[in-house]
């Protein structure tokens, strides 16, 4: 645990030392703030004191920004050779992956915390549904860990950050859109199957305020699978 | 801690990088690992440090196989990888602290140990700079510092002195020698004088196999064969000198070195020396012996003989 925390801490420090963290935070807040408050179906148009609009937009911005956060995590280490440095210290492959995972999840948590003023603002305008808001944030968190795990897997199979970014986005695209579209186009068992894989429907059911174990299992199992595949991709060096 | 390598084999596709390699390194020994590019030095080092898996064979560290130990053995090893990878965006001190923490050192020790390493590696003026701002030699020192930060019992150094200035090279060699008294050190290098200056034992590998193993002296003796002397004899007719030298019992061959009329190269019969005979001859004939140099086989020659085929 100590090792995982050491790695996560370094990741966070690197984010804030370089400009990456600030750019991501600014873009995330700017993007979700703009669409929540200023443009299109914004919060004033809906006329209800809830943040559902924000959660929906945030899920889209996280979909794009998380691959940008995770793309360098392992790919860069592999490219510069520092991976060898890390893994020949008392660090196992799993600890490395979990450390990277924790580091990026923490950065996303910081970004989500920075949106708390939205909650305060809306709750001062009207009667905000506290349970729904908490569930909304829980949904965003679950979605974030899922995409982070996918991103880390994508980063661990290549030495090129752009490839890692694109791969993560491509895999994410399936969960975010394509499975949903397929679910609409098929009926019966196949339709149900694709609907079960559709991340949006699980996210919506949580952010509506319903915490179902089915949804929790969905997010957690993709996360675990992503991290496990990441570890597997690292361990492949032993057998080549 | 001893390192024992038994029948180690590693193939990359159709290529055999390490082929049935077996050797042992004892505590208090500095082993120089030599070989041409692609001989399997780095691959072997990567297997010892646990970066890549063992295909066949076994590596035992302190008697325990690293296949069974998984991660425990790593904290006994300090490793400086090839090309010295580092985090360029980290300041030197933070980086050393990070490495120490990863090796599981306790917090109280870390600060003291970092100060020690900064002193030993001469990093005092650069300690707050980011690693990316340092010159190549200083980066190398940081790489050495991180390898030694947790005071490991085994040091595996892949080309430790590349990029250092001559003064620093001498210091680092001395450091390695001192460390080698109580630790187990394996270092690979292309710089042959370095091996002579630092290593107790040399292991030359070629195409994944050991081709020579021993101290610099024994290797030299093995490949040297007969004694060869370079002579300069003056105050006499070169032809007569040549003829008289040829008649000595111990002399196998003698030839005149063309550039200078009175220079000769003399080879003795095996296990015999002609030094005294040459001197007595000169005294008898009243010639002046102005130069007598025994020619030692250089490590370069041994290396070339063993690895070029």
Architecture overview:
- The complex is a heterodimer of chains A (240) and B (309).
- Chain A has one domain.
- Chain A is mostly helical and 240 residues long.
- The longest helix of chain A is centred in the middle third of the chain and has 27 residues, at 130-156.
- In chain A, α4 (52-70) runs antiparallel to α10 (161-185) and α7 crosses α13 (213-235).
- Chain A contains 13 helices and no strands.
- The mean pLDDT of chain A is 90.
- Chain A is 81% helix and 0% strand.
- Chain B is α/β, with parallel strands linked by helices and 309 residues long.
- Chain B has two domains: 3-214, P-loop containing nucleotide triphosphate hydrolases (Rossmann fold, 3-Layer(aba) Sandwich); 225-300, Alpha-Beta Plaits.
- Chain B is 36% helix and 28% strand.
- Chain B is built from eleven helices and 14 strands.
- Chain B has helices spanning 41-48, 66-69, 92-102, 107-120, 136-148, 166-182, 192-198, 216-224, 238-246, 275-285, 299-307, and strands spanning 3-12, 15-25, 29-34, 56-61, 64-65, 77-80, 154-158, 184-188, 201-206, 209-214, 228-234, 251-256, 263-268, 288-294.
- In chain B, the strands form three sheets. Chain B has a six-stranded mixed beta sheet with strand order 6-7-8-3-9-10, sandwiched between helices.
- In chain B, α3 (92-102) crosses α4.
- Chain B is elongated, with a radius of gyration of 25 Å.
- The model of chain B has no long low-confidence stretch (mean pLDDT 85).
- Chain A binds chain B through residues 2-3, 6-7, 10, 13-14, 17-18, 80-82, 84-92, 237-240, and chain B through 12, 46, 49-53, 70-72, 74-75, 77, 79, 81-83, 85-87, 89-90, 94, 98-99, 101-104, 146.
Main sheet attributes: strand count, strand direction, barrel closure of chain B: 6 strands, mixed
Q: Unreliable stretches of chain B, pLDDT < 50, 5 or more residues?
A: none
SSE series of chain A:
HHHHHHHHHHHHH
Please tell me what the overall shape of chain B is. elongated
Annotated CATH architecture of the largest domain in chain B: 3-Layer(aba) Sandwich
The value of Rg of chain A in angstroms is: 19 Å
- CATH class descriptor name of the largest domain in chain B: Alpha Beta
The gyration radius over C-alpha positions of chain B equals 25 Å
The name of the CATH superfamily of the largest domain in chain B reads: P-loop containing nucleotide triphosphate hydrolases
| Biggest sheet record of chain A | none
Structural class by sheet pairing and helices of chain A:
mainly alpha
Shape of chain A: globular
CA distance, first residue to last residue of chain A: 29 Å
Average pLDDT, all residues of chain B: 85
Would you tell me the structural class of the helices and strands of chain B?
alpha/beta
Number of contiguous helices of chain A: 13
Beta fraction of the residues of chain B?
A: 25-35%
